[in-house]
Structures are given as C-alpha cells and as structure tokens.
Amino acid sequence: MLGSDTELSIPGSAAEAVQAFGDGRDVTVFAGGTILMPEVAHGRYPRSGRTLMLGRAGLDEISDDGRVRIGAMTKLSALADSGIEPLARAAADVADHEVRAQATLGGNLCAPAGPASRRGDLQAALLAVGASVRSAGAGGERTDSIDEFIRGGEPRLVLAVEFDRPARAAYLSQRRPHAHSYAVMAVACAETGDGVRVAAAGVAPRAVRLTGVEEALAGGASGQDAASKAVEGLTPPDDALASSWYRTEVLPTLVRRALEQLQGG
C-alpha cells in the first residue's frame, strides 16, 4: 500500500503531467505498474513523496508517416501489433500477454539498470533505430538521442520517442524457459540513413551499441567477420540467467544470426 505521506497526482493531459512532474524530485512515476507493483507488494514502495499516475495523460498514440512517433504510455501489446520493426518483435518478445497488456514503452525504457529480469527490453531496438527521446524535467522539455538518454543522470519524464523507419531491421533473442520466458540476451540491428546500427541487451546493466560490429560493417566486413567484434569492450555480467562466460561465447553467434536476418529482410 502507498504510504500515508504519499501525494497522488492523476493528470488528464500531457501538459498536466509535465506540470505535475516538475523537476522530478521526490516523484515516482507510475505507468503500467509492472515494475512498481512488485515493489508495492513487498513493502518497498516509497512511503512519502509524490506518485504520478499517467494512465489518463493521453500519451499512448502511435503515428507513422515515415517518421515514427510513439507515446510513452503506449502498451507493449499495441507496439507488438504495430508492425514497426524492430520494436514490434522486441515488444512481442517481452514476458507474456498479461505483462505486455500493462507494460508501457516509457516504463520499459526507464527500467532500472540491473539484472536481465528487470532490464528495459526495448532499449536495444531503440538504440538500433537511432531513436530520439522527448522528455520533460528540470529546464523544461527537450529531445535527446537514445544513446544520451539511457546514460541517465537526472529525473526525466518520457513523453514520446521518434525515429525514421529503417530500410530493414532485425531482432533476435536468446531465451531461457521460465514462467515469463526471460531473454538472456537480445540483439537488434537496423539499416538507417547513417548505416547499419547494432545494439545488444543483457550484456551490460543497460543496452549498448556494438560499435566494433558497426565499424567493421562500415569497412566492408562480412556479417560473420563483423560479428566476431561483438564482445569488444564488454564484460558481460554473471546473473541468475547466465554466466559471463556464456554471454561472451554466445553473443557473436547471436549477432551473426541477426545480421543474416537483416540481410535477408
């Protein structure tokens, strides 16, 4: 249960949400609840401060006129049905139907860094397409590249993401059977106006660009040779899903297969 000192705010529009969020200090944002509800159930929810409920803020629109725009409150189930790749496949890969029907793009993007079971599953796909993130917080509204945004550093309220539809895209995950079938790792790649971008999730606390792979592809390397660069600069974690050794061994194969999928798409 929420603490007696918790102030609840339910904005009815994006503008009201921005105003209620302010500079983000002492604010807990409640989107789909798939991350926060377990905290509530285990008594770890903040006992004071403000809780911002975004369900009525109207941030759930998807538009696509070549430039894709997706509101932060868009449910992963809607994104999975959108046909916008590689995000549709990444969203369809998350947990199960019940979770996808509640989880949101913004909540997934802002998931706390840490074990794979709490990772933002869409971050790799957003990195691959070179998305920009529109958000609000101290200093007002601004737009950051996805690369800058996921580095974090200050509280921001995500309003929407946008990107140009890639010419081709691919998404592939390595899964471990479980009640929610967690992805041990995932690789997303996209052919954009800046070349092929490749990103991976599950190999670091947050998703990362595989710059060694990208540079090799830009230099004319084959997909197999480029994939051999996948672990450059990375020290994958050990956790309940897989060891660092396993991730190091499997990631190049996953990248190679994703690149083959891209080239065949």
Order of helices and strands: EHEHEEEHHHHHEEHEEEEEHHH
Catalogue the unreliable spans.
none
CATH architecture of the largest domain: 2-Layer Sandwich
User: Termini distance?
Assistant: 48 Å
- Give the amount of beta strand, in percent: 25-35%
CATH superfamily of the largest domain: CO dehydrogenase flavoprotein, C-terminal domain
Decide which structural class fits the backbone.
alpha+beta
Fraction of residues in H or I helices: 25-40%
Biggest sheet architecture: 5 strands, antiparallel
Report the average pLDDT across residues.
90
CA radius of gyration is 18 Å
Give the number of domains. 2
How many helix segments? 11
- How would you describe the shape? globular
Short characterization:
The protein has 265 residues and is of the alpha+beta class. The chain has 11 helices and 12 strands. The strands form 3 sheets. It has a 5-stranded antiparallel sheet with strand order 4-5-8-6-7. A 4-stranded antiparallel sheet has the order 9-10-11-12, sandwiched between helices. A 3-stranded parallel sheet has the order 1-3-2, covered by helices on one side.
What keywords describe this structure?
265 residues, alpha+beta, 2 domains, 4-stranded antiparallel sheet
Please characterize this protein's 3D structure.
This protein has 265 residues and is α+β, with helices and mostly antiparallel strands. The protein has two domains: 49 residues, Uridine Diphospho-n-acetylenolpyruvylglucosamine Reductase, domain 2; 203 residues, CO dehydrogenase flavoprotein, C-terminal domain (Enolase-like, domain 1, 2-Layer Sandwich), CATH 3.30.390. It has eleven helices and twelve strands. Strands 4-5-8-6-7 form a five-stranded antiparallel beta sheet. The N and C termini lie far apart (48 Å). The mean pLDDT is 90.
